[in-house]
Amino acid sequence: MMIAKRAIPKMLSEGIVVVGLGLMGGSIVRSLNEYSNEFKISAIDIKREPIERAIADQMIENGAVEQEEPEKTEKLLSENRLIVLSMYPAGMIRFLVEHGKALQPGTVVMDICGLKGDFVEEAQRLMPEGVEFMGAHPMAGREKVGYENGDGEMFLGATFILTPTEHNKPETIQEMYTFARVLGFARVREVGPAEHDKLIAYTSHMPHVLASVLMQAWHGEEDVKSFSGGGFRDATRVADINESLWAELFMMNSHALTQQLRDFSIAFGEFLSLMEAADYEGMKEYLKRSGDRKREWNREISRSELGKKG
């Protein structure tokens, strides 16, 4: 284990439980340990292997296999202040229904899944008296799955989205900012749960849809793999997808994603019309608008990184 480098913020000093030791959960425990070796970290998973591996790696002190060790699971939930749910959306509600009674007043439960909407309201309803639920979404990830693919540097420079509601205290929101900084995020943004899902349909779900569709679009006889360069690899990178997770996310966010697909169809139709009309000047203007918008987005991100607070 590394030598502790920094003082631990108060909320994080009272024990952390990560529920779900897949890619994201594994990256969180690694990132916490890279910040300091003095965190008290436990984990819960439906499988024994990631728990045993994380203990052997000295990433966690204790762990429980949920369905095999329900009493130990609830003991860990009752003894720690921050509970991070790193699970598929449907699994989170089941987990809270079955184990939420173990949560003690003063505990904060945070989820990190890619959807919020009605889920946040339902999760808050399930919280015992004195327990807060906070929705969050780390805008970072990889195509690989599993604890073994976790990376303590995966969050560096990324954006951490919070979806607080009127049920969250200002001091809890501030503590979540601190948690994000500890993990290495460069930016923290706050947005309502419903607005989050609308925005994510465009910036996260749509790229996965388009990459998947692009992989299905070739119907020629040539071995197209031999003709693919960097542009094609970049455009289809996220088509190497966790189909179970993303099918669930797409279906749960179907209203917002369907609207974004309709808007995309309009923009694509404009491009197609320019091609069919052989409108060179119109095509240049179309591409210029896209390039200008991308460059402005890049500048805004760079400015936010330069101006971020520690």
Could you characterize what this model shows?
Helix content is 51%, strand content 12%. It has 310 residues and is an alpha/beta fold. The protein folds into 2 domains: 11-191, NAD(P)-binding Rossmann-like Domain (Rossmann fold); 197-277, Orthogonal Bundle (6-phosphogluconate dehydrogenase C-terminal fold), CATH 1.10.3660.10. The relative contact order is 0.10. Residues 306-310 have low confidence and may be disordered.
The geometry reads as elongated
CATH-assigned homologous superfamily of the largest domain: NAD(P)-binding Rossmann-like Domain
- Work out the number of β strands: 8
Q: Which sheet architecture does the biggest sheet show?
A: 8 strands, mixed
| Succession of helices and strands | EHEHEHEHEHEEHEHHHHH
Low-confidence stretches: 306-310
Estimated structural class: alpha/beta
CATH topology (fold) name of the largest domain: Rossmann fold
Named at the architecture level, the CATH assignment of the largest domain is 3-Layer(aba) Sandwich
Helix content: 40-55%
Average per-residue pLDDT, rounded, comes to 90
- CATH C-level name of the largest domain: Alpha Beta
Rg computed from alpha carbons, rounded to a whole number of angstroms: 22 Å
- Note the beta-strand portion: 5-15%
Number of domains: 2
Taking the alpha carbons of the first and last residues, their distance comes to: 25 Å
